[in-house]
Write a structure and sequence with these properties.
The complex is a heterotrimer of chains A (about 140), B (about 130) and C (about 775).
Chain A (H helix, E strand, L loop, with lengths): L4 H24 L7 H19 L1 H8 L3 H15 L16 E5 L2 E4 L1 H20 L6
Antiparallel strand pairs in A: 1-2
Helix pairs in contact in A: 1-2, 2-3, 2-5, 4-5
Chain B lengths: L1 H19 L4 H22 L23 H32 L31
Chain C lengths: L6 H17 L4 H25 L6 E3 L13 E3 L1 H24 L6 H20 L3 H19 L6 H32 L4 H6 L1 H6 L3 H15 L8 H4 L5 H10 L4 H13 L3 H22 L5 H21 L3 H32 L15 H15 L5 H14 L5 H27 L15 H19 L1 H17 L15 H29 L2 H5 L1 H23 L4 H22 L17 H16 L3 H21 L3 H22 L12 H26 L6 H14 L4 H9 L1 H29 L2
Antiparallel strand pairs in C: 1-2
Helix pairs in contact in C: 1-2, 1-4, 2-3, 2-4, 3-4, 3-11, 3-15, 3-19, 3-20, 4-5, 5-6, 6-9, 9-12, 11-15, 12-14, 13-14, 13-18, 14-15, 14-18, 15-16, 15-17, 15-19, 15-20, 16-18, 16-19, 17-19, 17-21, 18-21, 24-28, 25-26, 26-27, 29-30, 30-31
The chains are: A mainly alpha (about 140), B mainly alpha (about 130), C mainly alpha (about 775).
């Protein structure tokens, strides 16, 4: 890649922006357009941009973890989110639980599941495409 | 409207199959992506095009009313991501193949299944005339 | 109707099964002797059953019922079954005894004993089964055990090929038999053999009655080595001699005859049945006799005479009169006695002299007198001389032929020549081998021990005794069996002396002609062997060509279908799919072409244009890079379509994916040759375009057909209604993904993760290769 000062300067900013937006998209996904798949893709796009600007190795270092590790965590999170379904005998696996702390807020294990999807998508996309970039 | 979309999908399928049949693996890959896109559109169409409101339950309402069909959308959403993963996998394979064999032509990558190599005929020789 | 306890039928099978398992852990010789004891015990059971049998009665026992498949199962034994079962166990006992000495110092004797026990079990099951499916299973097991026994010397390539040939011929016939049995039992509405015979009218009235009969005959003809399937039997002589004597002379090859006899009550009045059996049998006798005269190898000579014997049996079943059935049963017993005896003698000669070529043997009688005695007695029976039982049988056969109506002349002429040949061969096997000048052999000949002599001597003497007392044989053995063949009571008046009649004259003439042939044998054989065209034109050559053709065709098919060209696979795949969809829509209905309605169009249709333009541009792009850009156009147009048709989630995902794809492709193309043009030739482009257009057309028409059908909204409405109350989510798409169908989503991200793992492993391997 040709060095571009603008890109190099803006990439870290854009990375944080992309990550923030992606988390927001995941969190609101249950009630408005968004969700784990979309959020994961947006986060991946941010990381990819950063990798293009600063090189693959720096991007890998900033992730602090091998991309497949993210995949694993995501899968485990999604798997674990369904375990609470076993608490009551007549509900099957992946029956989500909800907690209503008041003020119209509803927190469910669905959010854990969606975050799992998010991490799996980020892990997959980065695992596949970071190696394609030149150092 | 639906008819026109069906025709457009047919056009994308035609282009994708034409690319699919190319000898060049990269073109095949593009054909593969286009094929996936056309299938996604076909699922959308098969779920019928009705109201264009997104399938979001209005605040205050309990059930979805007069909105687009959510079911095909859920199917397509995962299909897009899965197709994306598959494409990426295929792309890495093409790259590795090019790295190892120096070609992106499927016909030249003959190592796994050699076309020209003919195994020796396994026809049995004449029966023994003398019993053992 | 039940004459004897059912355990008499079950015990021999159970004993054989148990003995086969136990024998596998015994010392070889003990294993063979256990086999002899098992067979003898089985013989005792069947004998007890026969003695307890009333006229026309049968013994039944339950076995192998599978009600869920409509298989009633069960064993049943009438006179015919018991006769076969006694031959199998009786001769079997002698064979086991003989084997224990024949392979005395061979560690493979244990394997032989186990295989023979398994074979005996299958044979007994076949002849006592009262259910066609049970019968078929046992029938196939006999083919399988025969395969292993013929290929016993598995280091020998010839033995392996002979085993394969026997398996392919009898196994192929077995398939025909299965088809025939299924047709017959579906016509009869039962798989029980007695039920099928009882439902005679229904079976014969069935539309597929003719093919069913032909298939059954085909199965029996292959098993019993009838022309044109006779060629496998001489080759099967690659088996050890006790096996040849047992399987390929006395028992297994008679299984086809057994089944023909079993189904004779069903078909005996059918003209086709009579014609095929009579003429097929006659052709087989002639072929066997002629080919036997071309051979000098002891076992192959015997094999061809066995073919003749089997042909005689088939022919006799095909000839309608009651006397023929009696003749068939009598000949069956006689043949089993003398042919088994002669095979065992041949084995002794081979074993003791190391020589099997008749033309190099002679004068053995001085050094092996007991063997010579057995050979002469058996040969006299084979030649049909009085007072041997062979004489009784031959008289009967001639009598039947004389009464054979219009066919009498042909039957008699062929029968006369065949019998003369048999007389000559009987002479060769006894006089030439054991008398006259002694010829040097690889080993010094001497009589073998008791175990090997017991069989041939006992069988030969039995032939003499039975001939002297034919009435006993008739009342106890022949009548019940002939009754079963005819389906009505038969009374055999077996006698040694019928008085001076044309039959006796014919017999005398036969012996005279045979004697003449015997004298000329030494000069005749080389002449007949010289006729090489017979080897080239026979069915054996056809089998070889057929096998080679099958293998070559399979290879060609594999090369045509599994050609290894990805492009070729895809062309086939798309062409077949397009044709299948279009043909279904055109010919099976469902084609729906809506009228074009411009009022329904709005600005959203512009996105479709983007779709089409992008598709055309990517297909016709001169370089890959332009194709990638065009692909991006299609992707964004698709995203817009999703957006304007109320699918924002999908649209945003599509946007994100499309962006990533284009960027990533661009990154990947740095590594790849992007400017190269497509290398398809003009005609290839044309056919590809046709296939692509057909697929596209099929897709469009299919979608239009789908749109013309009413849409079932239940599922969509349920999700819409339940999303917020049950899952507390207002975005129905997301609720479906993470809650209602969460398990599916879990599966999908698992697939994604696996793809990521695979890519990581793939890339890492490459890097390790580069930097060791």
């Amino acid at each position: 890649m040709n060095d571009s000062l603008i890109l190099r300067t803006s990439a870290p900013l854009l990375l944080w922006l992309a990550l923030a937006v992606s988390i927001f998209i995941v969190l609101r996904g249950h009630n408005a357009p968004g969700g784990g798949f979309l959020g994961g893709l947006i986060a991946s796009a941010g990381i990819l941009l950063y990798a293009i600007a600063h090189g693959r190795d720096r991007a890998m270092r900033r992730m602090r973890m091998a991309p497949v590790g993210l995949c694993g965590i995501g899968l485990l999170a999604a798997l674990a989110s369904g375990l609470l379904g076993f608490v009551t005998p007549d509900t099957p696996y992946l029956t989500h639980r909800w907690w209503f702390p008041g003020g119209g807020l509803a927190l469910g294990t669905t959010i854990v599941f969606d975050l799992g999807v998010y991490l799996a998508v980020v892990g997959t996309v980065t695992a596949m495409f970071l190696p394609l970039l030149r150092k | 409207m639906e008819t026109l979309l069906a025709i457009a999908i047919g056009a994308v399928v035609t282009a994708s199959v034409y690319l699919f049949l190319s000898r060049d693996l990269l073109r095949m890959l593009i054909g593969f992506i286009l094929f996936g896109t056309s299938v996604n559109l076909a699922i959308l169409l098969a779920g019928r095009i009705g109201p264009i409101r997104p399938p979001l339950v209005d605040p205050g309402a309990a059930a979805l009313e007069a909105a687009a069909n959510p079911l095909p959308q859920a199917l397509i959403l995962t299909a897009i991501v899965i197709g994306f993963g598959l494409t990426a996998f295929a792309l890495v394979l093409v790259l590795k193949g090019h790295e190892a064999l120096g070609t992106t032509s499927a016909e030249d990558m003959g190592e796994a299944e050699p076309v020209a190599a003919t195994a020796p005929s396994t026809a049995l020789p004449a029966p023994h005339r003398k019993a053992a | 109707m039940v004459d004897a306890p059912s355990w008499l039928l079950l015990a021999p099978l159970a004993l054989a099964a148990l003995a086969a398992v136990v024998a596998a852990f015994l010392p070889p010789r003990t294993a063979a002797l256990l086999g002899a004891a098992t067979a003898a015990a089985g013989f005792a059971c069947y004998l007890a059953g026969l003695l307890a049998l009333s006229e026309g009665g049968r013994i039944t026992a339950p076995l192998m019922a599978v009600p869920s498949l409509g298989i009633g199962g069960g064993l049943a034994a009438d006179g015919l079954s018991l006769l076969f079962a006694m031959l199998i166990t009786g001769i079997g006992a002698l064979i086991f005894l003989y084997s224990s000495a024949y392979l005395a110092h061979d560690p493979r004797l244990r394997r032989l004993a186990v295989m023979l026990l398994a074979f005996m079990l299958a044979m007994l099951g076949s002849v006592t089964a009262d259910d066609v499916i049970v019968l078929f299973v046992f029938w196939e097991v006999t083919s399988l055990t025969s395969f292993f026994l013929v290929g016993f010397n598995h280091q020998d390539k010839g033995a392996r090929q002979a085993a394969l040939q026997a398996l392919l011929v009898t196994g192929g016939g077995g398939l025909a038999l299965l088809a025939g049995l299924v047709l017959v039992s579906s016509a009869a509405g039962t798989t029980s053999i007695s039920g099928i015979l009882a439902a005679r009218e229904a079976v014969l009235a069935h539309p597929a009655a003719g093919p069913a009969m032909l298939l059954v005959i085909l199965g029996c003809f292959t098993k019993s080595a009838q022309v044109p399937f006779h060629f496998w039997l001489p080759n099967a002589m690659a088996a050890p001699t006790p096996v040849s004597a047992y399987l390929h002379s006395a028992t297994m090859v008679k299984l086809g005859v057994y089944l023909l006899a079993r189904f004779n009550p069903l078909y005996q009045d059918e003209a086709a049945w009579q014609a095929i059996l009579t003429w097929g049998g006659l052709a087989t006798t002639a072929t066997g006799a002629f080919l036997a005269l071309r051979e000098t190898d002891l076992k192959r000579v015997l094999a061809y005479t066995t073919v003749t014997g089997l042909g005689t049996l088939t022919m006799l079943i095909g000839i309608a009169p009651a006397q023929a059935a009696i003749a068939a049963v009598t000949f069956l017993i006689v043949h089993a006695f003398y042919k088994a005896a002669l095979f065992l003698v041949a084995g002794i000669v081979d074993h003791e002299t190391g020589q099997r070529d008749i033309s190099r043997l002679g004068g053995l009688g001085r050094s092996m007198p007991l063997t010579a005695a057995a050979a002469v007695l058996a040969a006299l029976s084979m030649a049909g001389l009085p007072p041997f039982v062979g004489f009784v049988a031959k008289e009967l056969v001639y009598e039947v032929k004389i009464e054979g109506g219009d066919l009498a002349a042909v039957l008699l002429a062929v029968g006369f020549l065949v019998n003369a040949a048999m007389v000559a061969i009987a002479g060769v096997l006894s006089l030439r081998l054991f008398f006259g000048p002694l010829r040097p052999t690889p080993k010094a000949p001497h009589d073998p021990g008791f175990a090997m002599l017991a069989g041939p001597l006992l069988l030969a003497v039995l032939g003499l005794l039975a001939g002297s007392l034919p009435g006993l044989l008739g009342a106890r053995l022949v009548d019940p069996a002939a009754t079963a063949i005819l389906g009505r009571p038969a009374d055999a008046a077996l006698a040694l002396w019928h008085g001076l009649n044309p039959v006796l004259a014919l017999s005398a003439a036969t012996v005279a002609a045979g004697a003449l042939l015997f004298v000329c044998w030494g000069r005749l054989v080389p002449r007949l062997r010289g006729l090489a065209f017979i080897d080239l034109l026979g069915p054996a050559a056809a089998y070889e060509r057929g096998l080679a053709w099958t293998i070559a065709t399979a290879e060609r098919c594999t090369r045509a279908i599994q050609h290894g060209s990805l492009r070729g696979y895809l062309r086939t795949l798309f062409a077949v799919t397009a044709v299948a969809v279009l043909a279904t829509l055109l010919f099976r209905g469902g084609l729906a072409l809506p009228a074009f309605d411009p009022t329904g169009l709005d600005a959203r249709a512009l996105a479709f244009i983007g779709l089409i333009v992008g598709a055309v541009a990517s297909a016709t792009a001169p370089t890959v890079f332009i194709a990638v850009i065009s692909m991006g156009l299609v992707g964004f147009a698709t995203a817009i379509i999703f957006l304007v048709f109320g699918a924002p989630d999908v649209a945003f995902t599509q946007f994100a994916v499309e962006t990533l794809l284009v960027v990533i492709f661009a990154a990947a193309l740095v590594h790849l040759p992007i400017r190269r043009r497509s290398r398809r030739t003009g005609p290839e482009r044309a056919t590809d375009a046709v296939i692509a257009a057909a697929t596209g057309l099929a897709t469009t028409l299919l979608l239009l057909a789908v749109l013309a059908t009413p849409y079932d909204r239940r599922l969509a409405d349920w999700f819409g209604a339940e999303s917020f109350p049950a899952a507390h989510g207002r975005n129905v798409v997301n609720v479906i993904l993470v809650d209602f169908r969460a398990l599916d989503t879990l599966g999908e991200i698992t697939v994604l993760a696996l793809a990521a793992f695979a890519v990581t492993a793939l890339l890492r391997r490459g890097q390790e290769g580069k930097t060791p």
